[in-house]
Fold this protein.
Amino acid sequence: MDRYVITGKQRLEGRVRTSGAKNASLPLMAASLLAEGRTILVGVPRLTDIINMAEVLMNLGCRIEFKNNELMLDTSSLVEWTVSEELMRKMRASNLILGPMIAKNGRVKISRPGGCAIGTRPMDQHIKGLKELGVTIQERHGYIEARAEKLRGGEVYLDVPSVGATENIMMAAVLAEGTTVIRNAAREPEIVDLQNLLNKMGAKVRGAGTHVIRIDGVRKLYSTEHTVIPDRIEAGTHMIAAVMTGGDILVENVIPEHISPIVAKLRQGGAEVVPNGDSVRVKHSGRFKALDLKTLAYPGFPTDLQPQFLALLTTAEGTSIVTETIFENRFQHVAELIRMGAKITIEGRTAIISGVPTLEGAFVEATDLRAGAALFLSALAAEEGTVLEKVDHIDRGYENLEEKYRALGAKLQRVV
Ligand code: UD1
């Protein structure tokens, strides 16, 4: 795996454009399985996660073209219905094909995703929801096999508002006979984007963005074109970078409502945050103020920005408390931050951070995508040089990271 060599303490300044959202693109790609004909997705980021999902779909028989962030998916001739363990290991989110494949194809088999660096990642809510729609599910030898002669609408209550389960059930229900109601649905913006694509295809979905989603099944869905929403996690990462480097960054291509939890927290710590249309300017000088933070489902503070924000709090003035309520093991960046001079203790799902004046460069390792982003930001802010290992994790979620940060004034080099 590659590494970054980063020279810290460079003030970042300028403008940076946020790419399309990875976590919106993945379910939209899966949803293309439902259409008769082609789906065109505009603004899809070129990331390893996207390439891996494309590989999963191509294995099922889809024809895919990817040029200039425009993805064409032709799913008219599916030939396969199984996702191998090898592919599943590369691409956890390929579990999102369950719903659309069962709706379109009547059967699907995926290797059950294992745990990962941040938690056990169960699928019980996906399975429970699909069963409500008349799907028979067998779990054997590490595979989940789903079959349905005919899908019928049902009432689904999710015990936890899972993003993936909500998406899978929506995608199965659009072609079911009758009406499906999902209660305690996840409310993330990526779910609203999925609803918008499905409705453009001819589906009848309403309520995405609230806790109750209603889907009236239709017989067929058709070709369409759709532009992916901007990546709120990428935007949040750039906003934190501005504060950590005492910089001044205009982050372009944002939907202000989607980033409101991060705007609120950055302002609370003393940063200047000025939204203007579809961009936001973040400026900071001096020391950030310590604060408490708890991750929650949207519109709460996103777990996918917790590592980056925690990195910012390591040099805040005072003591901060960060509580992770979504994933049980999402503090892997902490041990690495301690190597950089941070003072942090972990008690269960809570991290207590005593702010130090500055971080110091060190040899550190990215353990997963967002932990990697947190260490990347820390290296930019630290005294002297940092070697950040295993940056391939970061490639899963940040498009053209080096180019974007070099343009802002960062000094970094990728070593292959
Ligand atoms: C999605 C995002 C991921 C983000 C997460 C939470 C994608 C591709 N990934 O992941 O980046 O961190 O939302 O915002 O969009 N759970 C169950 N049973 C289930 C499913 C989930 O108990 O069947 C639990 C999980 O363990 C976790 C919580 O629900 O504690 C949230 O997980 P979920 O919303 O499903 O996350 P993903 O969709 O996998």
